Amino acid sequence: MAFHASILTLFPEMFPGTLAHSLAGKALRDGKWGYEAVDIRSFATDKHRTVDDHPAGGGAGMVLKPDVLAKAIDGTAHKGPRLLMSPRGRPLDQALVRELAAGEGCMIICGRFEGIDQRVIEARGLQEVSIGDYVLSGGEPAALVLLDAVIRLLPGVMGHDQSHAEESFEDGLLEHPHYTKPNVWEGLEIPTILQSGDHKAIARWKAAQREELTRARRPDLYDRFTKRKG
Ligand code: SAH
After folding, report:
1. CATH: 3.40.1280.10, 2.60.120.200, 3.40.1360.10, 3.30.450.20. Which one for 3-151?
2. Burial level of 215, CB count in 10 A (0-12/13-18/19+)?
3. For the chain, percent of residues with pLDDT exceeding 70
4. Which of 218, 136, 126 is nearest to 175 (CA)?
5. What is the pLDDT of residues 145-180, one digit of tens each?
6. In the chain, at which end, N or C, are there fewer CB atoms within 10 A of the end residue's CB?
7. Distance in angstroms (rounded) separating the CA atoms of residues 138 and 150
């Protein structure tokens, strides 16, 4: 069964958005994944279709109402975990992406305003996921980022399954630099080793580049890498 995303949002028209194009778009048309974008507002019951209210205890902004959101969650069929996009969440990384891609799907709740009522998070067992230490105006772009990363790992989506193996983060290292023809461009030459045809030497060069780049740019990742290597 293909991976299915049930997305709860106040802006269903934002989906599939970027995921209608290129790799993810082709996979969507080929039935390798599917989605449903559910309008949270359609679960509001008053005549103004209210979805938000003032924060308890005062403060700026508005909060998504628990009753309306819970109805949306309970009224939407879904597979897998219930994720809430949130800057307070578990940082999204390739390990979590792989975990999700191995499953049947997920529900993704996109927050707006100041966020959602804490009681829904607890009562519906929502897992908060953050895409980074910055604040978006809504969870929709974060949901698109998460789904993009998951979809490319689904079976048959990427041409060469093997092209995952060397990529950034797959083994905890950043990727080595890439080059393509012409061999000399603006007086700059492709590293000679890459033109040597010596595949063992090339593999060694790539590995060394990856370690060096990671050490210089991401000491946090490099630390974990060396610890794992023992
Ligand atoms: N008041 C909140 C920010 C709300 S931003 C705070 O200070 O933490 C509105 C919505 O955007 C959030 O409910 C969440 O769904 C989404 N969002 C914002 N930043 C995000 C991030 N870094 N990762 C994932 N979702 C994010």
Report:
1. 3.40.1280.10
2. middle
3. 97
4. 218
5. 999 999 999 999 997 655 666 677 878 999 999 999
6. C
7. 20
Residue 55 is encoded by which pair of tokens? 């924060």
**Closest CA to ligand 1's atom 5:** 137
What's the token pair of residue 161?
A: 């399954």
Q: At 58, which helix (H) or strand (E)?
A: none
pLDDT tens figures, 72-87: 999 999 999 999 999 9
> Of the residues 10, 85, 109, 148, which should be mutated to test ligand 1's pocket, given the most ligand atoms within 8 Å of the CB?
85
The atom of ligand 1 lying closest to the CA of 109 is 15
139 in contact with ligand 1, CB cutoff 6 A: yes
